[in-house]
Amino acid sequence: MAMATLRSLLLLAAAAALPVEAETFASAADWAAAYTKASAAVAKLSQNDKVSIVTGIGWNKGACVGNTAAIGSVGYPQLCLQDGPLGVRYGTGVTAFTPGIMAAATWDRALMRQRGQFMGEEAKACGVHVLLGPVGGPLGKHANGGRNWEGFGPDPYLTGTAMAETVQGMQGAGIQACAKHFILNEQELNRETMSSSVDDRTMHELYLWPFADAVHAGVASVMCSYNKVNGTWACENKHIMDDLLKDELGFQGYVMTDWNAQHTTGAANSGLDMTMPGSDYGGKTILWGPQLNSAVSSGQVAKTRLDDMAKRILAAWYLVGQDAGYPAINIRANVQGTHKENVRAVARDGIVLLKNDGGALPLAKPKKLAVVGSAAVANPQGINACRDQGCDTGALGMGWGSGTASYPYFVAPYDALKTRAAADGTQLSLASSDATGSVAGAVQGADAAVVFLTADSGEGYITVERNAGDRNDLDPWHNGNALVAAVAAANPNTIVVVHSVGPVLLESILAHAGVKAVVWAGLPSQESGNALVDVLYGDTAPSGKLPYTIAKTAADYGTTISRGDDNFAEGLYIDYRHFDQKSIEPRFEFGFGLSYTNFSFAGLQVTATATSGPATGTVAPGGKADLFDTVATVTCNITNTGSVAGAEVPQLYLTLPTGAPAAPPKQLRGFDKVKLAAGAAGTVTFNLRRKDLSYWDVAKGWVVPTGTFTVWRGEAEHGTDGGALPLAKPKKLAVVGSAAVANPQGINACRDQGCDTGALGMGWGSGTASYPYFVAPYDALKTRAAADGTQLSLASSDATGSVAGAVQGADAAVVFLTADSGEGYITVERNAGDRNDLDPWHNGNALVAAVAAANPNTIVVVHSVGPVLLESILAHAGVKAVVWAGLPSQESGNALVDVLYGDTAPSGKLPYTIAKTAADYGTTISRGDDNFAEGLYIDYRHFDQKSIEPRFEFGFGLSYTNFSFAGLQVTATATSGPATGTVAPGGKADLFDTVATVTCNITNTGSVAGAEVPQLYLTLPTGAPAAPPKQLRGFDKVKLAAGAAGTVTFNLRRKDLSYWDVAKGWVVPTGTFTVSVGASSRDLPLKGTFDVA
C-alpha cells in the first residue's frame, strides 16, 4: 500500500512575514451590522420579552423540536429550531441528505458546501430558523462511538474544513447553523453523567479546532453537550462557554443547551444564552422562564447578562437575514427540488474502493450476477418503519437517533442493480438473507457475487440488537463474516460492499482468496443503489478516501468506551496519530482509497514567510486574526496517468520541527479534490495558515516553533512515510554494524567464504570465489562523505550498549544487517548449511531497535542470502527506509552508494516473497525424506492460494520515481490441446512457439530517470486442473527518462499457457485466460483476457 510521496523541508527563519489574509466568511462588519440592529431591538424589549427570547416554551409544545415565543414589538417570530445535521427531521417532503461522515469521505469542499446550501434551502422553505447541525463533536476518538457518523471523522483539520463549508452553505441559504455538541461528548454510554477531563493542549489541538473553524465561518449558534467537562457540566461550564468559545474564539453568536442539558438557573452566569426545549421531557422542571426572571430581578443574574443573551440571539437572526420575508413554519412542506443530485453525488464520490484484485471492478455487462445479503434490499416493513431509523433491517443509509431524517424514497442496492441488469441483459439472482446454508447454490456459476454487509450505531436512547448507541464491537452485523466466507468459497469473484457507520474489521473477509474487491459504501442515504451502481459499473471512477483508519484489531485503536469518567489519557494520539506514534500498521490508512485510474505527483515547491513565536493578532471570529494568515504555500503537479477519467485527493501532512514539544509524527494540514481526464495534468496549491504550523502552549497560546518543518505530500496518510532516501549531502552520517566493514581478518580469510564476519558479499561453499578486492559499504560511504563534506562516524560493532551516543544528532543512521547460509560441509555460527531461522544475524533486531530509538531517521541495509523477517524492524517509528542489498560481491559499497545517494534510482525487484512469519511459507526443512506435499504451491503461489498477506510480495521493489501502466492489448492464436511437435532442445518444438502477444504502455511519471520491471502473470481458465491463482509468464526491464514513455511486448509461448498432464504431456486448456500486468505479483493494475477454443 505504498503511495507516491513527495517530501520537502520548510525552514522558518526570522524573515519579515508577508501574510495573506484568509477569507473571513462572516466578517466583523456583518456581525457589527447585525449587532447594531440587535441592540436597537433589545432596547425596546421588556425584561419578560428578553426572558422569552432565551427560554424555550417547553417540550413538545410547538411546531418544532425547539421553539421560543414570538415577540411582536420587534417583529421577532416564534423561533423554530429543528434537527438535524442531515436534513429536516420529521419532514415528509424533504430530502434525506447523506450523513456527515459520507460527506467527509468525498474530501470535496464543493460538495460539502452544496450539501449545506441545499439543507439550508429546505429548512428555510419549511420555515425552520435554526437547523441543528453540523456536528463537530463527537470528533471520533472511539472507533465504535455511537454518533461518530453524524460528524466528519476524527481528524480536526478535515472536520474543521467540513464544518466551515457546511456552515457557509447553510447560512448562505438563510438558515442559522448550530455547531454541536460542544464539547468532549465522545460516547453515548453515560453521556448524561460522565465527566470528560482533558489537558489544555489536547483540547485546543483536537477537540476545539473544528469549532474554531465553524466560528471563523460565522456560525450563528453552538449547542453545549450533556457531559461534564473537567468536572463541570458543559452547559454550566464558564471556562468552555465564556473563556474558550466567546473570549478566545471571538464567538458572537449564542450558546444553546442540548435538550434538557441545563442543570441550574445560574447557568446564565456561565455563558449559556438559550435553554432548550425550556423544560424537562415531562414538562415539570423549568429552570429559566419565571425562574430566570426572578434571578434577574433579584440580581442573581445581571440585567446586562440578560441583555447580552437576547442580543446574541437576535444578532444571529439578523445576520442571516431572517428579519424580512421569511416563510411560515410548515415542516411538512415539499421542498426537495433537485437536491437528490447532491445526495447521489456525495454518496457516489464518498465510496471508497479498498481492494480490487485483478481488475474485478468495474463490472462489464456480466452474463450472470448474484446479489447476496439482507442489506441489499430495503427494509421489508417500510423504509421509515423504525422510529428515528432505530433498526438495522434491510439496506443501511444512515445511523439512528435524533440526527436522522425520514426517507422520501429509498433506492436500495438491489433496485439499482436490477435496473442496470435489465439494460445489460444480465441474469440477476437475489438471496436476500444472511443465512449461509444455501448461499452456495445461489452464487455458483455467476460471473460475480456481490455481498452486502452493514454495521450500525446511533444515539443512546435507542438500543438496536443490544447496541445501546455505541457499537459493542467492530465486526460486521448479521453474521457478516460467515456470510462472506460462504459466498467466497462458492464464487471466486466475490465483491463485498460494506455500508457502515464507521470502521469495521475486515481481516476475516480479506483472508478469503475468493474476495476480489471490497467497496466501502458508507452511509449513502436515499440514493444508495444509484450511487453504488455508478461506481460498480465504472460510470464514475471511485474517488472517496477513508475519513478514519481501518485497523487490523479493535485494540489497535488504543481507546475504549469508558464505563465511568474519561480522563482522555491518549491525549493528542487518536486515529492515525496514534497508529503513527505507536508504529502500528493499519489495514487501511486514513485517507486511503483506490481508483480505476492512476495518478502521479511531481514538482513539489514550498515557499514560506512564517516567523516563529506566538500569535499576536487581535481576536476575530475563530481566534487571533493572524492565525488565519497564509504563511506558507505548497504546490505540486498531479497527472492522471491512467486510461479513464477520475478524481484524486492530494493530501498534505506536516511534521513539526524536532525542537517543538512532542507531537504526532504528522498531521493533516491540507487537501484538495482534483478531477482529471485521462492523460490530463493540473497543479494543486495548498495554503498553510499560521495556525496550521502551530502547537498550543498553555501560557503563550498558539506558537509557531523555530526549526525545520517537513511537508509530506501523498495520496494517503500511510503513504507519506518516504523521502528518507536518496541522501542529499547530509551534514552528519552515522554508520552502524559489523557488516559495514570488510572482514578484519582479511576479505578471503575464511575457506570458501565460510564465515559471516564483516560485510557479506556471497554465501559459503563450493559455489564461491575469492575476492580480488572488496569495497565494503563503509569504504564507499567514507569516499562519498569526504567529497560532500559530510561528518561520518562508524560504530563497527553489533553491541547495543553504546550505540545511542554514536547516532544521536546524525542526519541519518545507516545500520547494516546480514543473514548467511551455504553448503552443508561448513557450519557457520551453528548453521550447518541451511539457516536455522529467518532472523537477521548478530543481534540484528536489537541493534536496529537501539539505533532507531536514538535516531528518528534510521536506514536499514540488509545483505542476505534470502528472505529475512522484518516485522521487528518495521515496528520502529524511527526506521524510515529499508534497503534490500542482497549479495553484491566485490563491488558492495560502490553499488550501495550509487543507490543511497540517488546516482541511480533503485530498480531491483524481489526474486522471492518476504513473509511476516516463517510459518507463512508453508514448508520446513525435512529431517528425513521429503514428500513435497505442498505440490505446486511454493513462495507466491502458496501465499496466493492460501490468501496470506506477505510483508513484501514477489516482484516488489520501490524506486525514486513513479511509473504508470496503461493500454493493455492482447492478441492470441493459441489452440487448445497437447503439444505435438517433434522433440527439440528443451522439449517438443511447438512448446516454444509464440501463441499470444501482450503489449502495454509504461510511463515514467516522476521527476528522475529510472527503470521499472513490468511483470506479466497468467491465470488459467476455470475449467483447467487446479493451479496457482497466477503464475509469472513474462517480464522486462524498461529504462526511462523522467516523463518518457515506452511500449512493452510480452511474447507468450505455448508452454506458458500449458499445464502438465501425466498422460498427454503439456496441454493448453480450453477457456478464458486472464492476463495481469503490473509492477509486482500483487500490484497488477492492467487486466485482460483471451479465449482459447
UniProtKB/TrEMBL annotation:
SUPFAM superfamilies on file: (Trans)glycosidases, Beta-D-glucan exohydrolase, C-terminal domain
Catalytic activity: Hydrolysis of terminal, non-reducing beta-D-glucosyl residues with release of beta-D-glucose
GO cellular component assignments: extracellular region
Main location: secreted
E.C. numbers: 3.2.1.21
Keywords: Carbohydrate metabolism, Cellulose degradation, Glycoprotein, Glycosidase, Hydrolase, Polysaccharide degradation, Secreted, Signal
GO BP, one annotated term: cellulose catabolic process
Pathway: Glycan metabolism; cellulose degradation
Key word Glycoprotein present: yes
Matches recorded under SMART domains: Fn3_like
Signal peptide residue numbers: 1-22
Gene3D superfamilies per record: Glycoside hydrolase family 3 C-terminal domain (3.40.50.1700), Glycoside hydrolase, family 3, N-terminal domain (3.20.20.300), Immunoglobulins (2.60.40.10)
Family: Belongs to the glycosyl hydrolase 3 family.
Protein name, UniProt field: Beta-glucosidase cel3A
Organism: Niveomyces insectorum RCEF 264
